[in-house]
## 1
Amino acid sequence: MKYDVIIVGAGPGGIFAAMELAKKNKELKILMLEKGNSIEKRICPKRQTNVCIGCKPCNITTGFAVAGAYSDGKLSLSPDVGGELPEYIGYNTTVDLIKYVDDLYIEFGADKRVHGLDDPDKIRDIRTKAIQSNLKLIECPVRHMGTEVGYTIYQRIQNYLINDLGIDIKFRTPVQSLVVEDNSVVGVVAKGETYRADKVLVAVGRDGSEWFTSMCEEYKVETKVGKIDIGVRLETRNEVMQEINEALYEGKLVYYTPTFDDSVRTFCSNPGGVVSTEYYDNQLAVVNGHSYKSDNLKTHNTNFALLVSKSFTEPFKEAVAYGKHIAGLGNMLTGNKIMVQRYGDFLRGRRTTEERLMRNNIRPTLIDAVPGDLCLVLPYRIMKDIDEMIQALDHVSPGLASDETLL
């Protein structure tokens, strides 16, 4: 089975690579291999029953468009957030590329409204309060598609790739190994079949990172240890976040903590959203969040991540394993579920109980979250960074440092 190009992974990287290749050369024979399901078969029973049944592969973290299809559906339209692309291709080129991809999403049905541009006076007030608290506000326009609308958009994209561009996509076909001849990748092995191609593009995400690491080790490809983000997802009432939610939709704030001078940032805010669980390798539960577009599906809560970015030096080489180890400690204490703790209990070093959780004004939107003690999971340095970040954010969004805020 010979192709011009094989793409491993049907996440955004693989999707848009396939789209651009096919548009530039309609004669190319392109194959995409994805370990998960097609978009129409990606159904998570837990969203209806609140009980995970352990789908294999997980329909949240694998499948066409991967986790992005089932998350908040936000497009962050700034080169200052979301990775290191400007370092590779230049700032201005990144700006142009963001505009190009954003226009594609609009063609496939994304909402034309962009948040974060409508009210400069309110944004100025937020920026002023941030500066007074030593926080840096990164102004980033956001296009919000919504969880349920994002699903529809990716359905259209999948159909376009298959029906209009003639791309061969094989689902539930995980790649087991690369085929290497004369120090070049000339194909892959998937489900026992060998597929050969002139070019092989590996576009795996978090779920495929360990497999890709093993391939690099097997074929002596030099790798570099990247940063790792460790943190929690914070949940509070919409009233506390109202100013940021209305003016920016998502407030991207960065803080350098006074004790350790570590970088802590807010990430992936979901106004009126829900906290959710994702399972990696069908066993490791990690926390995420999403928000629907429809008002009747909105909740009373806003959730967002607080992430501490850490870089490690030699001899450390296992960034992903380190992150999984910390998540695994939480899973060990909760029976593979997500732990939740009130901020007041977090400050006092005590375990949150079901009784204290039930009398909270803020009720967790993740129904099966287990009350517990993050002190038994997170390293002290990370806990201190998170605490200092919450105290700083409280000056921008008063009430965030309430005892009742959930972590």
## 2
Amino acid sequence: MDAASFAAPSSVDRLGRVGLLVGLVGAVVAAVGAFVDLDRFYTSYLVGFLWMAAVPVGSLALLMLHHVTGGGWGFMVRRVLEASVRTLPLVALFFVPILLGLSRIFPWADPEVVAQDPLIQHKAAYLNSTAFLLRAVLFFAVWIGLGLLLDRMSHRQDRTGEPGLSNRMGALSAPGLIAWCLMGTFAGVDWIMSLEPHWFSSIYGVYFFESMALGALAFTVLMAVMLSRSAPMAERFTKGHFHDYGNLMLAFTMLWGYFTFSQLLIIWSGNLPEEVPWYLERITGGWKAYTIALVVLHFAVPFLLLLTHAVKGRPQRLVFVAGLLLAMRYVDYFWQVMPPLHRTMPHWMDAAVLVGLGGLWLGFFSWQLKRRSLVPFNDPRFQETAIHG
């Protein structure tokens, strides 16, 4: 057994080419939109970036979870997760336009707004452009650093087969998950919560990083189904693997629903004027339809479908659930970001930015996926779990 036996199929090449092509088209259209309406471009860009960045950042958490727990489900998609994590430097580059448009996105970065708002002035030690930049550098440094260390050990294991590397990756991943959660918490506060500096929620950080993991899991399941349709992975994936993926999606969907409802319950029961308006704005007017869609399509429908063995055991049905969850992740970010920026209706620039960022990222991801074998064939636990299963 060697790397050539598990080379990426031609479908990965096609995915990369299509992604790169549509990404370039979307990027050009989005750039034109920036000249038409720069404010709208930046708000659309923030939503598109959050949706795209959630996949590689969330994949890092899933990769570390796999290294800590083991299991056949993780071995079969470990290369997908590793390829996604290797795109984090590109994600950091995609963050630059947000830094350039801080004053057009965040009210605390606009000197005129700050001069008239005593509360923002009180929070200025934390909410300022320099601190925002430094924290963003810290977020990406931690994420990229953890991903780089794990990827190097995994690549070394492919070359040498050192059995001790599995334990070393697990030893790094345990504290790495704690660091990932901390970075995700502060990133959620900076990138979304600070859009409304008068509002606060003690549970929002947990909600934010769990949502990233859910988006990454949905994307990973879609890739697993695609790879399972052709050699060499068609003979390796089993119904048991997809049943595990269905159970994981069910668990993460339930967590998303739990954190969402918990935040609403705490804020609504507290009935504080600093907190309740955040929900009032989103359950009335034009945003009411988005709220209903999130309850029905982001939670109720996936939850009910994933309860059944008929869905979890069949890849073609899991594709629908994973695709629905991935699409609703964008709706969720749109629902969170746009109300304070007074953007009720979708705009063509939203689609252009989404296609541009998503396509370019997908092209780079596909190239990364082709660089390694599709399975960690020298991992001793792989021999015991994935192939035996």
